[in-house]
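Hi there. Long-time user, first ticket. I'm pasting a complex I've been working with (about 880 residues overall). I'd like to know whether the download I got is complete or cut off, because the file seemed smaller than I expected. Thanks.
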Amino acid sequence: MPSQQTRPARGMRDFLPEDVRRREYVIGIVSSVYQRYGFEPLETPSLENIETLMGKYGEEGNKLIFKVLRRGEHETSGETDLALRYDLTVPLARVIAEYRGQLPKFFKRYQIQPVWRADRPARGRFREFFQCDVDAIGSRSMVVETELCSAVCDVLVALGFRDFTIRLNHRAVLAGLLQAAGVVPDLHASALVAIDKLDKIGVEGVRAELAARGVEEAAAQAVVESFTGAVSLDNAGALVAHLADARAGIEQLQKIVAFSASTSAAGFIRFDPSLARGLSYYTGAIMEVAVPDLAGSLGGGGRYDGLIGMFLGEDVPACGFSLGLERILVVMNERKMFPAEVEQTSADVLLTVFDDASIPEVLKLAGELRARDVRVEVYPEPDKLGKQMKYASTRRIARAAILGGDEIARGEVTIKNLDTGEQQSVPRAALAQTIRALCK
Amino acid sequence: MPSQQTRPARGMRDFLPEDVRRREYVIGIVSSVYQRYGFEPLETPSLENIETLMGKYGEEGNKLIFKVLRRGEHETSGETDLALRYDLTVPLARVIAEYRGQLPKFFKRYQIQPVWRADRPARGRFREFFQCDVDAIGSRSMVVETELCSAVCDVLVALGFRDFTIRLNHRAVLAGLLQAAGVVPDLHASALVAIDKLDKIGVEGVRAELAARGVEEAAAQAVVESFTGAVSLDNAGALVAHLADARAGIEQLQKIVAFSASTSAAGFIRFDPSLARGLSYYTGAIMEVAVPDLAGSLGGGGRYDGLIGMFLGEDVPACGFSLGLERILVVMNERKMFPAEVEQTSADVLLTVFDDASIPEVLKLAGELRARDVRVEVYPEPDKLGKQMKYASTRRIARAAILGGDEIARGEVTIKNLDTGEQQSVPRAALAQTIRALCK
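Hi, the file is complete. Here it is re-exported in full:
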């Protein structure tokens, strides 16, 4: 009788076998695509010293960090010294600073690990969730942004997505457009929060929110015009032509778009001046990937040339992209995008057991089959054949093999298809091959 | 300049790419072998409600659990409500209790996840480490123990081990031998602690420790005789013939040994009356796997028919085996057991970049190669060719491809072997095939 205390903790989830198989399928594709781009795997500990994390995610972030009590004699003091990983970017910055001398000049890593945030749980929002991060450290070239976008497109296409968009913008262009519209610099961050809601609250909503945030009426009107007028990169360039930083940003975006025409991102990537991205550490291009049937994004990223410097003391250029595993899974589950082999159970065949005396022979047969890469479940105890068949059905194992005294004497095995009820006798030496052929 | 604060927290580790590749190689073999036995993957959350864990691991265990501070207004109270997973067995028991109705009659799961213990860090002992658990729930048949031992042997053989032993014993046989030797029941647990040190402190040490623990001299002598006299299963059976529980234990061990003769465990498994296993929840057969050059074990397990009942309220038979990933890795690293492909870097070829103008063509070539499963790193910015080659060498990338204006005009690519310095021109359409052939 499941009682309260056997449920997972609030915002946490148990993954039963079919869940794990789906998660591993996605993770497998993500990592193999990233490897094809020359990215290498990195893993960092779940627990970081608390000072490593505090102050890196803003005030709101500080509150959402899970903090771990000191141990031993300090346990009753309420002091904390460790905290659970909140994202994969800050640990990466720490790793770069710590191992700089050992790492190649350009360090390209991917990292697929859980992070923890004490957010209020909601549909699709959990307190333990996986991020799939990919980052390239050490170069300011727009080849980096281009390759990241191309890799993300390859991942999504390999998973079966066709209707996604990579929205592209640039922090300096954002700032330039705001400045050109007459928003004073002190209000930029606040105005971006309003603009970020364009999808949700519409033009009038954004204008009202800008006013509420202290942006003058004329400026608010100009902002709405520049950000909603289906602004092309050329139009945006004209608006900020007098601002050196923004102009440089436009040039970078032009390069990314031009380079992308030669990659798998062609057709998926488009400039979107209203893309703001929440995190404060971005310094250059920013990207976000979206599908029509999911509010919010599947992931996003950008250039953050300053973050590593917080640990290393010298700036190191960096750019990355993070995909949310849970968000990808939500859409793939709803759209039924998983191939049949992911939905299989683990066993190709159930070996039935008549009596104690035949167990050694059944175990021997299991070993022979497994040595030929057949996945074999042995029914663990003698039981009525009907019950064993029924068990195989509930496990969705498609075949049962019967090795009774007669079969042993003849050197044969009877194999039964549990869907059709058909059965055939097969020479024992040919059994693995027969099962593998049936599994195709 | 790495400073104190960029190191991982005490007892925690960063895994650089070569570490991750080795870990993933072992995890890949462990899971594929377990799948071949019909085990299915399960994952549970890192954080459990604190009551789920407290009291399950003894008093010492309680102290080693990492406890998480309550959030929000409670943060300053020092109260804790969550704790980090301490092993994979208690969460499994919780999962069985919670999802009993959804799970098959025999639930066979494997689970490979980190656990956290606030132990004093030492060589090979970390505060975050991975366990590879495999458990079969729902049957009292000795087929379960046999299959578990066979699966563990397959894992170790697949990893390249040949010199391991699976020590086998039984809780009821242990108790019977102690009783037969004249140790009073109240001292059994204490005596087992002493016997467990036989490898480390020898016969005289054990005898002294038994005395110190209050075991009478004659009993201590009898204990040492029964546990060290290279006792066979038959000898042990004779010593405990008058004790029903112990006799039943002997019969179970005889079955495991007889069944194992037909499996891959034949030749690796042997009865060892001095094997005690620390954990208190074992109720039947216990196993431990050891190699000569590692103090302690690579892993162990046994039958625990009572643990799930702590959550479910009714007893469910269960038996499992846990391998320690870190311990396996320590031995494999020392013995250099990793195949060459695990030690590779992620890229098969580096595409060099002459100038901005050729970047689109280089990116296009990268896409063509990746579509044919070649792992390609693109040098991210125009640079002197020598520097790019040097970078490839430091990354241990064996080949560089050069796509200059001449090559583009001729529809060719120059490919250079960075070990020998040899280079050849290859038609662009044949490049993927050429590289794949060279990678063999």
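A couple of notes from our side: Residues 17-36 of chain A form the longest helix (20 residues). Chain A touches chain B through 114 residues (CB under 8 Å).
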